[in-house]
Known about the structure:
Layout (H helix, E strand, L loop, with lengths): L8 H25 L6 H7 L1 H11 L1 H19 L11 H49 L4 H16 L3 E6 L8 E5 L11 E6 L4 E8 L7 H66 L7 H33 L7 E3 L1 H11 L8 E5 L7 E3 L1 H18 L5 E9 L2 E8 L6 H4 L21 H11 L3 E7 L2 E9 L16
Parallel strand pairs: 6-8
Antiparallel strand pairs: 1-2, 1-4, 3-4, 5-7, 8-9, 9-11, 10-11
Helix pairs in contact: 1-3, 1-4, 3-4, 3-5, 4-5, 5-6, 5-7, 6-7, 7-8, 8-12, 9-10, 10-12
Amino acid sequence: MIKTTLKNPVLLFIVRFLGTLALTGLVTVILRFFEPVLDVQYVALLYLLPVMVSAALWGLTPGILASIAAFLLFNYFFILPYNTLLVHQSQDLITLTIFLIVAVVISQLFGQTKRSLDLARARELEATRMYELIAALAGLIEVDAIARTLAEQLMTTFQFDHVRVVVKGKSGEQPVFYDLPQNSVDSQPANISLSMMTHRNLEGEIRIWNENRPLSEQDNRLLETFCNQGALAIERVHLSEGENKVRVLEESDRIKTSLLNSVSHELRSPLAAIKASVSSLRSGAVEWDNASRSDLLATIEEETDKLNQLVGNLLDMSRIESGALKPLEKWNSIAEIATGVAARMHSQVQDHVIHFDFPADLPLVPSDYVMIEQVFSNLISNSVKYAPSGTQIKIGARAEKEMLRVQVENESTHVREEDLEHIFEKFHRVTNADRVIGTGLGLSICKGIIEAHGGKIWAENMPQGFRFIFTLPLTLDGSLPLIPRDEKE
């Protein structure tokens, strides 16, 4: 975890020992040079300098060593009789004793300070490494990326010879391996093998080849923390995948339930009408006149069209969701499509007033004629369902820059602003849901068709009603339609 130039502890101790003696000897040489002008008490104070420096740089043991060396040199060179360790005066003996006590106390204080500082730095480095690992693993959503990141962080932090992260595969799947350095081959088994275990399951294993440097207690603690964080990251990915599957299943079940509820009602109503009409026509108990027979046949035709539209909507929604909806774009008149749809839906819109607002110079638009017909059919049908009888439905279009803007307006009630963005979702209704029949797929199909054409569709409230707006590109592959020349020219 902490890099040092000398990894051998014995060699490191020898270097510190020699450094302490050299520093004390250097101070002795300087004091000998200034001895004529220095009193004994000043010499004693100056001898405390190598004690403090040694303890501050190398710790308690070098500080004690410097205290003893300074005590002996002070006695030998500066206490009478000189050049001997003997002491003749009691005052000098007291001075030497106090000096040794003070030197030892100072070395202990500085040694404890250095130890605390080293511990604080080690804790800071450990916290920094942990933060870097957690930050690197936080946004990962794939097991391969977690294995790679964990191996890189281990190599950066510990400088191992070789690291291999093994992530346990799911049932029936092979485990994931990641080695650093990559493509490394080790004939010897790993020196260290650690399990990445959570309280739920065994997520994998970390294998380490490390022959150069023994691990300290702090290294082992940090290594265990790396294993725990890696295991939690892998478990998070597995839980996230499981949660996504559950969410998809819940959504699928909800859609299936909505579809069955809606379709079952929509199928039974026209089938019941068709069955009743056919049974009445085939029954010999009643003699039907031509007018009554025509009404029954019209009912059969109308209900059959509803069934056909229902099945068509389901098939179209399936094509949209699978990405198989590919418009066959040709140059068409949007006014011609809209008026044709309104004419074909005459029986449905007979209780409303249809008003068209298309300028004479409205350009052609590249579109799939049948699909855009369906868009107008669904929007008009929606307007008829929600707008009161006798009100006006207005259909218009304008060219704006490189897009054609089409509007279908009605006089229905307003929709809440928070529901506007959900109005084109499947099976979503925001008003009069209990009075309006339908599968709730019409607007979703409109959205899919318009987006397949490269346009956009949205809805908004008006002061006196509601409107749908969609846009379509006016160019096809970047080109405008060719204008035929007048044959007289």
